[in-house]
């Protein structure tokens, strides 16, 4: 009795550990008031490579004593033109001046500003802009939300008027240009927004001249700033189709030397444009409008180098990497999808001829060299994404030909990883390539997440700070590879232990994966954690063999819901500005605003479904599995019959990636990344079990005692699969018995042509 309870108790303990790890959040209180006045100075197009002590001495000194970071200028339209940047600044949410497409360079702002009394101003087009953002955009943005949150606002320049206008178009105090002495003007209201001009173009001389003019104006602002004021300078937009990271500097009491960050990015040295509005209100001690701001207030963290040139080298390098990532990522995934499609077509004839005929005549078998070559190619295909992730260890983006350097580094790493799998002593074991590749992929992604996800930020396999979707934790591609690697590894390891212990092994490995994915310290992806929990539950339920019966489905559902509900309840107990995506969605359901969240998710899914090569990988994987691997000649059914724990892992991958993609707004991208790893390994394993399908030799003896069924008294081996598919003999914890499906003549440490009785039965 105790022996049967141990796996159950272990499973319960590991699940409890996983829930506890998910709900622990870093301590972060609400920002306190630090200043009496806030001045937001915008310079569209300003980048860190425009800043130096000669061209911009004022900004340089301000950066030396203040806090700095990289600003992602995402808005509701790509690219973010200056008018969209100013509109987003004033809305505290992703906004756009209009819904028209931008081609080439951003057009010069043509803003109608009426000023009949010489003090205030009015934007007659503001009402139409509000309607456009409310009716045609998916963010529920209200332009003017920042101005509505304070009693009085000062705007200097046409761009600042856009940000300072209230929803009905009124600007409280307006000046067309900055006066020679703006002391009185900046002291009129708690919030001032200033347009310092635009830095645009590719000509270094023109950019330097524009940056110098902005710096001269900034010097007048700093000389006239009110006491106890916060001044923030930000490059609030792009100026053409090339998206870049921009400058953000904060200077004031409580904003001394350090890195800027926010809860919306979770990454030191990074802010979003939508963070500036809540930062201004929080610094001045003003409440933010509920349900309108999507950003979070900025904070200052230590760790910035004391030497400013060294400090700004980091954001400048991040901008170069993010720009190179945009160019390289598109062709990498297109090339990967094309090569995997070709490999899928090439493996079908091998599957049809892989089963060797037992009689004196039959079709000519495929030469061993061809099979060995295809196996190596399948391993390389499965490891392509982990190798590309690991390539970011080398700063390939700094070279003139970044794409070529990335390809060379990735090819070298891929060759090393493939050779490590191929040259291992255990390579001839049937499941060794599948298990080792899966474990290696999960280890690479997991190690990156545990060490701060440095390889994913602006990496080809990760996420770009320019897109503004994620800045820390586990990305979409990484989630797919990690889910596939974790569950395949769990199935591989579970297949090697006694059947009664298999659910515990699957749950143990799976919950470690859930911790990596969902912990706010690590992957910070609660939706991915919920999806992986569902996959682990399904995999554990069928890991002992047989079908997914109603009882097993109920057990898996209860286990999955227990983790999800536990996480959701504790997430809801957090302050509103510290909740994860699951808690925010449940809060929206409670107050009746969940329709907007569902609309955003649906729009994201449609965009991801139509515009990603990973969708092709997912669909090609489905076609290969359904029309080839699951055919009577395809070998996958035979593989599942002999190795039910592997079947369980693949079933869990399907469930987890579909849930993670749909709930996370990435459609089939998670499934596509998982398919890039899973499908090649499934094809390789199918080739191997088919190769031994007609062997007719005596099985090796096992050391397990027999068990007697209570009903008939019939002796059954401890590893029997009562689903009627196949008989297993792999439940030998000592590892000395032959594994099901292995040809002992090909396995290290075994001799003779004997073949496992499991494959004889399945054949």
From TrEMBL:
<feature type="transmembrane region" description="Helical">
    <location>
        <begin position="372"/>
        <end position="391"/>
    </location>
</feature>
<feature type="transmembrane region" description="Helical">
    <location>
        <begin position="553"/>
        <end position="570"/>
    </location>
</feature>
<feature type="transmembrane region" description="Helical">
    <location>
        <begin position="471"/>
        <end position="493"/>
    </location>
</feature>
<feature type="transmembrane region" description="Helical">
    <location>
        <begin position="403"/>
        <end position="424"/>
    </location>
</feature>
<feature type="compositionally biased region" description="Polar residues">
    <location>
        <begin position="753"/>
        <end position="763"/>
    </location>
</feature>
<protein>
    <submittedName>
        <fullName>Uncharacterized protein</fullName>
    </submittedName>
</protein>
<keyword id="KW-0472">Membrane</keyword>
<feature type="transmembrane region" description="Helical">
    <location>
        <begin position="505"/>
        <end position="523"/>
    </location>
</feature>
<feature type="region of interest" description="Disordered">
    <location>
        <begin position="696"/>
        <end position="763"/>
    </location>
</feature>
<feature type="transmembrane region" description="Helical">
    <location>
        <begin position="606"/>
        <end position="630"/>
    </location>
</feature>
<feature type="transmembrane region" description="Helical">
    <location>
        <begin position="331"/>
        <end position="351"/>
    </location>
</feature>
<keyword id="KW-1133">Transmembrane helix</keyword>
<keyword id="KW-0812">Transmembrane</keyword>
<feature type="transmembrane region" description="Helical">
    <location>
        <begin position="670"/>
        <end position="690"/>
    </location>
</feature>
<feature type="transmembrane region" description="Helical">
    <location>
        <begin position="529"/>
        <end position="548"/>
    </location>
</feature>
<feature type="compositionally biased region" description="Polar residues">
    <location>
        <begin position="705"/>
        <end position="714"/>
    </location>
</feature>
<feature type="transmembrane region" description="Helical">
    <location>
        <begin position="431"/>
        <end position="451"/>
    </location>
</feature>
<feature type="transmembrane region" description="Helical">
    <location>
        <begin position="642"/>
        <end position="664"/>
    </location>
</feature>
<dbReference type="InterPro" id="IPR017850">
    <property type="entry name" value="Alkaline_phosphatase_core_sf"/>
</dbReference>
